[in-house]
Amino acid sequence: MIEIRRQKVARLRELGVNPYPYSFRRTMNTAGLLDGFDARIDGDPVAVAGRLMAIRPMGKAVFAHLQDEGGRIQLYFKKDEIGEAAFAILELLDLGDIVGVVGVPMRTRTGEATLSVRSFQLLCKTLRPLPSVKEKDGQTFDAWEDVEARYRRRYVDLILHPERRRVFEARARLITGLRRYLDERGFLEVETPVLQAIYGGAMARPFTTHHNALDMRLFLRIAEELPLKKLLVGGFERVYEIGRVFRNEGMDRNHNPEFTMLEFYWAYADYRDAMDLVEDMVRAAVTAAAGSNVVEYNGHAIDLGAPFARRSMVELIQEHTGVDVLTAPVDGLRALLIKGGVTVAKFAERGHMIEALFDLAVCPKLVQPTFVTDHPLAISPLAKGHRDRPTELAERFELFIDGREFGNSFSELNDPIDQRRRFEDQARLREAGDDEAQVLDEDFLEAIETGMPPAAGVGIGIDRLAMLASGAPSIRDVLLFPHMRPEEGRATSDESGDA
RNA sequence: GCGCCGCUAGCUCAAUUGGCAGAGCAACUGACUCUUAAUCAGUAGGUUGAAGGUUCGAUUCCUUCGCGGCGCACCA
Q1: Would you tell me the crossing angle of helices A442-449 and A416-431 to the nearest 10 degrees?
Q2: In strand B, which positions have an atom below 7 A from any protein CB?
Q3: Shortest CA distance to A102 belongs to which of A39, A45, A61?
Q4: What is the pLDDT of residue A45?
Q5: Which nucleotide lies closest to A150 by the C1' atom and the CA atom?
Q6: Closest nucleotide to A222 by C1' from CA
Q7: What is the pLDDT of residues A434-448, one digit of tens each?
Q8: Measured from the CB, is A41 under 7 Å from any atom of strand B?
Q9: What is the ipTM of this complex?
Q10: Contacts of A35 (CB under 8 A, 6+ apart)
Q11: Could you give all domains of chain A from N- to C-terminal order, each with its CATH number?
């Protein structure tokens, strides 16, 4: 089939037609044309451009549909009107070709808004056919719904399903909303390294890569946290970064190996201040993206307009299981988890078990926006101890919606001696087999030793917010090019690819 | 990583207990100057995801592998 198209390209060139010209001046798009269409009928010719999505030849006349970013319009080509030579070129066009047309607005006998074509120009000859999808009266025939192909060939998905674009527009509005919100409050957007000699700032396994000139292993960042805190040391008081982070873990409808995270750091504030800000910011940004502060998600009406619940983790677990996790014997917690079908790692301490118990018994029930506060200190190595229970709990919160985490925040630990001790605890866990434990970062400690103001820090997963704002059930629906395994037999770059 | 399900023409899907791989659309040729899932006549299109096995014979049964979906685990 591609061979036939190649031959058409050759024939077009023989006819003196450049199948790939440089530009086309259009006077409007289809949306603009259709707006007040009847006033334009039989008026001045207009020029539009787009992709041919339907062609209905009728002998010496051809009807077609042209699709651009704004929508579709029917085209009517008449041999008498465009001439013999142009009609011959028209007959070499295929579904999917991109053309520019000049025509006069008219309505057909059945009333459809149509452009009566006076002249047209081929703007791009396509070699590869589009799936043929037809529709009538809002009913679609042979819809292109292969999910795998949809993600691998997103461009085809976008051509065939222009409405899919709305999700990505909502995502863009969300990010713009977050950015505007922080900018208006004096936060400065910065960019910090993605390639790092040492990774940190979150509990996760990293991707590794290699720097040839330095002949050293590098990691792709798993969080933005540590460099941003160095900026607090340097005197920036309100900074944020919206960027890609990478975690070498499983993929599913909530996880992609690379995802977008917003982190902000706010000097002289604590996690309670951050909670107020996050609540207001998330409400504003999702409302901007979704057009409402109540969003339908996973069968629930999520109300972002109402005040977000604020509950401590310990209190929630007590409420759902009757167990006081701070006083219950560790063996009892372990037994409870095993009974719940959770595999408990050998190195697990009370803190890990509290978190696991929370994930098991409480997390799925948090449908409406809820700030879960005051996590175990042991699982929060970068957070300050809680002012009321400094040896057991951290000043930390996570935002949960529909049973999933959307954000994480703490009163940032700025006591360098305590921070070093926490890193050493993490190192011990790593020895014991916890490969997500954080690595001691001497550079970072040196910065903290130089003095970091008290501050609140927040991390928010943008992709999940985008899912919430657009009603998308899978993270792949809010990523234009979600990560996929390469197709069999399709080449991947080899490791010696130094340029 | 584990479990279940799927993979047939460019697209959407058929194929009886294991018995000649088919249809619609798209494509190609021809007819048709207000059609709209245009219509009509004709043509071509396939290593049935890959490899192996059982069998006279495999799209169908078995094994392994690849890719995907869903669920679980890990995590955001």
Answers
A1: 160
A2: 1, 10-13, 24-28, 31-39, 49, 66-76
A3: A45
A4: 97
A5: B68
A6: B76
A7: 878 888 999 999 999
A8: no
A9: 0.88
A10: none
A11: 2-130 (2.40.50.140), 165-308+368-477 (3.30.930.10)
